[in-house]
Design brief:
The chain is an alpha+beta fold. It has three helices and 14 strands.
Length: 182
């Protein structure tokens, strides 16, 4: 079985900022990635409704990193477990675990991909169309090539190389439309 991936909101970063918000359905898991800043919460909730998903059905939320533009709307998903680089959080329980190679579901895995921040993670999703990587290693297909907010550009380049070595068919960047890597 492979996962189904839908982009709920295409992000952007110019004079305003919004994160790309992604939905993954795999087996019994319903995963939202980076429910951060958007112009209106309906830009997350309306696409969910059109796909037949209620916020209470979301089982997991993944934060690629802890910048508010990627986390701000997490409270929309009251029943979810929340994943970051070093733990899983649900209600008042904090469970330590490294994110690298953590399996959320049969077709969804987390990977440590530092560079933009030291704590960045990417989500690998095995779909019928191939491997899709949801990541902030790229802001968008158009760039910028050098991340202006990266804590370590050299480490980011190494993380990009590791992701590209997996031969993804699609990259879902932090602030743009999905694109096929060159």
């Amino acid at each position: 079985m492979t996962a189904r991936l839908d982009v709920l909101t295409i992000g952007y970063a110019d004079d305003r900022v919004a994160s790309t918000v992604t939905l993954i359905r795999d087996s019994d898991s319903v995963v939202v990635i980076d429910p951060g800043m958007v112009a209106d919460r309906e830009l997350i909730l309306a696409p969910l409704r059109s796909l037949g998903v209620k916020p209470a059905q979301v089982t997991d939320v993944v934060f690629s990193h802890h910048h508010p533009d990627h986390t701000l709307n997490a409270a929309l998903f009251l029943e979810a477990r929340f994943h970051d680089h070093w733990a899983i959080y649900q209600d008042d329980v904090w469970t330590d675990r490294p994110a690298d190679r953590y399996q959320i579901s049969p077709s969804v895995e987390l990977r440590s991909t530092p560079g933009h921040t030291a704590e960045d993670i990417s989500t690998l999703v095995h779909t019928d169309a191939g491997l899709v990587v949801c990541t902030h290693l790229w802001w968008s297909a158009e760039g910028p090539e050098a991340d202006p907010l990266a804590v370590d550009q050299e480490q980011l380049e190494r993380s990009r190389a590791r992701v590209l070595a997996l031969h993804p068919t699609l990259i879902v960047p932090g602030h743009g439309s999905p694109f096929a890597p060159e």
